[in-house]
Amino acid sequence: MQFSELSPQAANIVAKFTLATTAEVVAGQRWYTESYAIASRIAKLHDLSPVRVAAVIAALSPNNRWERNIEDAENVITAFVHGNDQDVLEVKCCTYTANKLKALAILKSESLDYEDILKGPKVIEFFHCISDHSSDDVCIDGHAYSIWYGSRLTMKEVPNIGKKLRERIKQDYKEATDFINAELGIDYLASQIQAVTWVCHRRIYGI
């Protein structure tokens, strides 16, 4: 496939990838693998499964910076393991109370079907990418949409991403990934290209 044959939005993703530094490419390539390692470390400390911890991290991710997301997950899990429900609810998190309640429900759940608790498509995608870092799912948040759209948008400017649009965006990320892999002779996952372009996008716009 030639660059000119890409959809305009897939071309936007490729264009952002070309702006990434070597360090950003490496960071994005490793991002979900290292996220799983973080979940595994927390899990080992509290005798939980890494997948359950990944679900807690995903639950607490909306409107939350990554570094604080991890801090919040650790604090919520510590409060749950060493305290009670009220202790969890009193933990200050940089996300919505509803998301903290989801995290608590995940920690209390006897089922392993955490998707039923997470519900939102973005947090489920994030959960998939962390818990199974070989997954070819793609996490579509406001930044991923901006990269796909080809312009920096504030979160207020990002539209509601319905099922049909979400699938189209994912397909364009996968198309961009196929093009990059063919050009470079590498075997990136679409989730890795999403992560690389996200890291690059944050640096360019100081997000």
How would you explain this protein's 3D organization?
It is a single chain. This protein has 207 residues and is mainly α. The protein has one domain. 68% of the residues lie in helices and 0% in strands. The protein has helices at 8-18, 22-46, 50-59, 66-82, 85-89, 97-108, 115-118, 121-131, 142-149, 163-184, 190-205. α1 packs across α10, α4 crosses α6 (97-108) and α10 (163-184) crosses α11 (190-205). It is elongated. It starts with 7 loop residues before the first helix and ends with a helix. The model has no long low-confidence stretch (mean pLDDT 95).
The percent of residues in helical segments reads 55-70%
- Rounded to the nearest angstrom, the distance between the terminal CA atoms is 33 Å
Rg is: 17 Å
Mean pLDDT, all residues: 95
* Dominant shape: elongated
Summarize this, please?
The chain has 207 residues and is an all-alpha fold. 68% of the residues lie in helices and 0% in strands. The protein contains eleven helices and no strands.
Summary tags:
single chain, 207 residues, mainly alpha, elongated
SSE arrangement:
Layout lengths: L7 H11 L3 H25 L3 H10 L6 H17 L2 H5 L7 H12 L6 H4 L2 H11 L10 H8 L13 H22 L5 H16 L2
